[in-house]
Amino acid sequence: MIQLSREPVAQALLGARGIAKRFGPVEVLRGIDLELRPGRILTLMGENGAGKSTMFRILAGQLQPSAGELTLNGESLRLASPHAAHAHGIHLVPQEPLLLPELTVAETMFLGRLPMTGAIFRHVDWKDVRRRAQAVLRMLDLDIDIDSCAKTLSLAQLQLVECAKALLHDCRIILFDEPTSPLTSHEVDNLFVIMRRLAADGCTLSFISHRTEEVLEISDDIAVLRDGRLVDSAERGSFDRARLLSTMVGRTLRDIPRRESSYVTEQTVLEVDGLASEPSFRRIGFQLRRGEILGLAGLVGAGRTEIAETIFGVRRPTAGSVRLAGETVTSKPCHDLIRKGLVYVPEDRARHGAVLSMTIAQNVTSGLLERVRQSAGLLSDADETRLGATAVRDFRVRCAGLDQPLRELSGGNQQKVVFSKWIATGPKVAILDEPTRGVDVGSKEEIYELIEAMARDGMAVLVISSETEELVRLCDRVLSLYEGELVAELTGDQINPAAVSASYLGSAHAEGAP
Amino acid sequence: MSAVAMPSRRRAIAPRFTMTRELTLVAVTVGLTITVGLLNHDFVGAQNLRFMLLNSVVLSLVALGQTLVIAMRGIDLSVAPILGLAAMVCGLLAQTHGLSLAAALPLALCIGLVLGTINGVLVATMDIPPIVVTLGTYSLYSGLTFIYSDGTQVDAVSPTFAAFGNGHLLDVVPIPTPVVVLLVILALCWYVLRHTGFGRAVLAIGNNASAAYAAGLPVTWVRIRVYALSGMLAAFAGLMFLCYTGSATVTAGTGDHIELQSIAVSLIGGTAIAGGRGNLIGTVLGSLFLSVVLTALVFLHVPPIWYSAGEGLMILAAVQAGFGRRGARA
Amino acid sequence: MSVSPTVGATPGDDLTMAKRRRRLFSLGGWELSLLVLLIIVTTSFGLGVPGFFDNLSGFLAMTSNFLPFGIVALGLSLVIFTGGIDLSVGATASLAAVVAAQLWATMGLNIWVASLLGLAMGGLLGGINAAVIVLLRIEPLIATLATSFIYTSAAVAVAGDSPPSGFPDAFNNMGSGAMAWGSFQFPYQLLIFIPLAVLFWLLVTRSAFGRKLVTVGYNSEAARYSGIRVPRVLAAAYVISGMMAALAGLVLSAYYSAARADMGDVLLLTTIAMVVLGGVSIFGGEGRMGGVIVAVLLLGLLRQGMLIAGFSDMVTSMLTGAILIGSIAIRNIFSTRVGGFGKRLLALIRRPAIAGPDATRHDAP
Fold first, then answer.
1. Partner A contacted by B159 (CB < 8 A)
2. Which member of B122, B306, B311 has the closest CB to residue C325?
3. What is the pLDDT of residues B6-58, one digit of tens each?
4. Which residues does chain B have within 8 Å of residue A161's beta carbon, measured at their own beta carbons?
5. CATH class of B41-322
6. What are the DSSP calls for B65-97, one per residue?
7. Do C192 and A319 contact (CB within 8 A), yes or no?
8. Looking at the domain assignment, is residue C361 inside a domain?
9. What does the pLDDT look like over A167-189, one tens digit per residue?
10. Which of B48, B52, C89, C155 could disulfide-link to C245, CB 3.0 to 4.6 Å?
11. What's the CATH superfamily of A268-353+428-512?
12. How many domains does chain C have?
């Protein structure tokens, strides 16, 4: 055991009672009770969308709970801001720490709190900065040069610097928001060594993950969230892989309507062979046939989006080939692929999908400007109206009019517009990355029906989804991805929620799942 | 790029005391001086060396302020008219009312403070992009100069001004007063940027304003102060211009496009246009380099019309040399 | 989760009609305010300042004094739509005009052929800007700052000691002449500007290129994912901006009947002011061409009116500066998008993200 703090260790017990959080009509958290105890590591587990990050943001003062209360050492605690949380010794280590690329590591750690010295000329006490930064990094046994620029550090190093920062400012409660998914296994091991050391020193740690092995390895306590509810919580000893998986997935008994008809034909339209883009994924090979709906399952960070981007030509492959309708299209630019009939509906709407300042109609036609009728070089208003109106009708976009800027729509409605933009091009192959993210339940079913209709019309569809139910509901076949490699292929009756979740949650050991 | 995959960056190397950019600039400047000196011995004569040094002082002063602004991820085009207005007001008052140098100094600084603060307030509190704000105040401030001068110009200031602009601080050491003043101001600015909370906040804002805000730094206040400081330095440069040239016209500053020159030498000096890094010593060396290049062109009998092309090529070369490029991570 | 009740319009004919109406008058609130301001300015000068509006011909003739700015503003706005900037428009205008004039003066080319070559020269200079920006990946601000220095030198060099002057009357007419029907006179400059304005307006609002331009400016990543060839769009914007600058240079040399190497210098600041006042975001991706056209007329007429009223040239440019800042300040204060200070701060460093909570995204990294 090492002594990290200069003062006697102040123990902190952070509690949450009945925490609920609503965003508009959507309940993200419902009555969560948690207890973060000193010297222990509590893991929050759950599938994507279970509410883990929201819970953390409430604990760190970034969000206010709609109901319930927080307690610190038994006393009621109100965290109005991240500053307040910090003042109470609560530090959240984000998955991707805010970057100050040109500042040194030491200065990054002291941002906003640089120690000053000097009676007349107040100036930064660099000696103190360097000494304390050095000391805390040494205590954590981190081999990071405090004088190097933040931009030269890896993501893993930045996370570790964030841990050091927490200690430096005497934060005894450290929350790690899903730190491991972008890290390599070696980096994860490093992080765990540090986390154990902090816990041994009496810090209160909490951690988000959905990788079962690592949860069982590092945790003292485990709390499993599902659909915003705390479904199970106990000491690690009482958990095993099977219990973890079944509580996380929790739907083994629930009946999900499977699609009855299949439109799969024998005609292969997309062939991916040995595709790799290091370090994200490697050895990916599959075939997609006309009328088929193929699911790509896996954890966030498993490389699903990267595969889609590589097929779509916006990311460089390091090996392998892609054939579209018999023609090799490996690393062709995406505008070529779109013309050849391959479209990609990206996951990140704000970054890749839409122009929020443009109107609905303009967004719908932005992918197929060449196909809008033109007279004398001008886009036909009637044609654009027709396309826009069709999209709005087919996707039940709730809007005030076709000329409403996209920015004014809700997230779900924005997604519908983006989605329709690509479908309107009538592609041969459509890659849909999280097609129903941010879409309300009612609209989801509509989108599913639309995807089915696409398959019926002979389109080949690749659906990337973190929602098991969605894959089960839609797919003829599901491929499972774990850390950049295909680990399972499920067909027919194998496609049920338990099997799908287990296939990627349990990595290569999927057979062991209940 | 996806949110998840992030290639690990190369292992850290300590960049703290490497002064690559400064050393390169010194080497290139000295090399150029020697090369041209071999072709024409007058170029390395004491007279000419002194001239080149003095010639860079006014630009250096303006560019120091500009560097601070750019390091904060802003831009200040209004430095040129601020320089002009300060030179004109001090010059006319000295010419007609016998304003003393001792009184002119605080007056110039006040002018710069007020005009710079106006820029700062507009940028920091009104959410107007800095380039738009300073473009607007560019016309406003040049208009003020025009109205104030009312068609007259300054051509006869008192000897104390000229002595300040051309003399030596100590008769023993043959270093011109403006150069000494510049070095003192450079040292002050360097100290402020390197060692004060304000200076570190400037860099933090330039790196990532939302992170700086989240860390509790007084972002608005720091922004205002930086523009005020840039204004004061420009106004002081105006006074220095008046002392050095002994004259001031309505187009002082704006005529030479000193606002563009100051941006250029900041970039040459190694300040990142995307903010977050400011190299004040590099800026001053960059101004000196520019002065040497322009004088060398005279000595090499290059027609004066090509001087500005030379500046343009220098900017491109400096930026290509690795600084001021579009940030890899926006 | 629950299904929120369906609100808003039902798709159908109403939607279609609403859309058509809005599209015919592609003017938002900002453009309308500018238009109202333009009407107020024109009427008040017309009523209050003798000589501003004595007759229609005289009123129209006044536009010849500022339309070269408008021509540059049209081209420049394309560049600003992409999120870039072109500081070299002034130098480009001078260089292209001087080259054309020298071709006429020293090589004896027909003035109109020389003018066409001047336009091509402008396009070429714009192309150089685009090459520096796209191929060398240098910020547009820096790239065009550097090229403007280079173009300025070249212009002075080409102009030589005695800049060409004394063009044929037919050419000079383009700058200062007017078509006459009896006593009614219609300046040729306006004859050039009006079709160009309509052309650019249609280009931005109704053409595929305009759509791509705005998409690139709003979010070049999104544009790439939509299959837009971003470098091509950027190159086209800078080439067009260069050509418009060249045209303005030619018109200016016709106006003065001389091609001076420094005549383009005045163009830059005023034209940026016109584009920004017109509502085009300096960050790109937002704004309307109609606003730019109204802003050209507003700033131009305001300036002329003040000059006629006896204000000095400087006072009028001061007013231009004040209007530029004031208008954007007012717009930001009343803008619904700018919320608390934190939001403003974010807006300074990047354009605003999606509005509204997006429930299921909260657990995503």
1. no
2. B122
3. 333 333 333 344 567 888 889 989 999 999 999 888 888 888 888 898 889 99
4. none
5. mainly alpha
6. HHHHHHHTT---TTHHHHHHHHHHHHHHHHHHH
7. no
8. no
9. 888 888 999 888 877 677 777 88
10. C89
11. P-loop containing nucleotide triphosphate hydrolases (3.40.50.300)
12. 1
